[in-house]
Every structure is written in structure tokens, then in C-alpha cells.
Amino acid sequence: MKKFDVVILSERRYVNPLKVDDYVKNLLLEDDLVKKALEKEGLKVTRLSWDDPDFNWSDTKYILFRTTWDYFDRFPEFSVWLKKVSMQTKLINSEAIIRWNLDKHYLLDLQNKGVHICESYFVEKGETASLQEIATKHNLKNFVLKPCISGGGRHTYKITSETIAEHENTFQKLIAEEAYIVQPFQKNIVEKGEISLIIINGEFTHAVLKIAKPGDFRVQDDFGGTVHDYTPTSEEIAFAEKAIKACDELPLYARVDIFTDNNNKLAIAELELIEPELWFRNHPEAAVKLSQPIKQLITPN
Q1: Which residues span the domain enclosing 165?
Q2: Taking a C-beta distance cutoff of 8 angstroms, is the pair 205, 252 a contact?
Q3: Domain check: are 193 and 112 in the same one?
Q4: I need a surface site. Which of 46, 62, 146, 148 has the fewest CB within 10 A?
């Protein structure tokens, strides 16, 4: 018999952390809101690190990915674990959708299904062209370079015509190891911010506006970005829900990051289906809304 209905998945740093600063405090609060909502549904719940060596993953009915925020730094190890654990229990979201969402090439799939993304160029691992040649080919004078598998702003660079030369060596080392995406710098992300809309079970629940700190272009709080409550327009909600419906399967939870691109069109920045911050602390009712379909999965009427 299964010992747990749900394991809320985190990472080693955040399971019984030694230091609890404001960042970790928010993280723990978010996971606790989900845990309590699931328990209120009568489910047996625990919270573990994905690399816990002592837990038998077949002892839980479902794994709910939440704060596994080191997976992209340990991707080969994580990928092996993901394959193994998917044969022992069920994952929320599924392994198939996680693997699709891991790599930013998914943006092309969305584009092919009619979901607008900003201008994006993919540079595959082992590419021999220089950064200058790529910029010239696509007429890029002010652009952002980031890995196709990443998170938290890892190896993300804002580059201009004047600074290309100083990034060439770094680029050549990086592209030898993994694929990258190149996108024109989006001025509205800095000037207006990036909107994150939370979609649970296919429906919008709440949103926040992320704003970069003065002088930076990254909206993540790791780099001094700030988060604000936000009421999206009906157009923004419809756009986010359309993006979710374009997935091959409906994710149980998702965060859709959108912005107004340089052509003043709504565009997808990221579709976060693996371990997105969902700001339950801003909207605790959404944790309850997430718990309900999980309860249905485990004990269908």
C-alpha cells in the first residue's frame, strides 16, 4: 500500500534549511500553503528533496513538482532521476510535459500553433559561427543570449553591438556545451515589466507584475526584481489560456509569462510548467484550487 498520496517536491537546500532568509521564508510558506490545502482534502502528504536517497518513490501515488530549483544546474543527474521515478509513480505535471518544457525550443511549437512569441533565433550546440556573425545575420544590435535549458537567469547576457567582442570567448565556451536562444532586447520588459499569469486546471487564478530593478534587465528577484499584484486585462487572460491549450496535454498548473514585444504585440516570454513560483502567498485560494483536481485524481467520484 502507498504510504503517501502526494509528495511535494523540493530540493536539498530547502528541506529543513539551515538559514531562513526572506527568500527561503517565502518558499517555505508557498509549499506549506499547498501542503495544508492537500491535507484539508484528506490526503496524506509529505515534502522531500527530489534527490532524497532514502525514499522509495513507489511509496507515493503522485509527485507534485514545486521548488526543485537546482534541476537546471544538475540536469544530467535530474534527467536520469526523472526517467526512473516516472516508472515508479505519477508526476504532476507529467514527465512528457516536463521534458517538452525543459527546452526553450518549445517556443517554436507554440508559434507553430498560432501563439505569438517574440523574435527568437536558436543556436545549436557545437555551432561554429561567431556571435558577431549571428548578430549580423539577424540584424541584431541589442539582444539577449540565454541557454535553452535554464532558469533563474543562469548564463543570461544582455549584449550590444559595442559589447559583442567581449562576449565572444564566453559564447564559444558556452555553445560548445549546450544550445542557446538569441532574442532582440525587449524594451517593454524593462519599461513596463513582465506579467505572470497563473493557470490552474486550465483556468486563470491570479497574476503578478515583475519589474526589474533600475539598471538591470532581469525581472527575477534573484537580481533585485520586484513583484507586484496585478489585474490582467481580458485580452491578457485569453492569451495566456490560449498558450496553455496549445500544449499537447493540459498541465494541471502553469505560469505564463507574457509581455508587450517591440512591435506592441502580446508575446510569450516563458511557459513555466515544471517548478514555477506561483505566488500562492499573494493568492492562497489558488493553492486550494490546485488541491481539488489532485484530490479528484487520487479519489475520483
Answers
A1: 121-185
A2: no
A3: yes
A4: 46
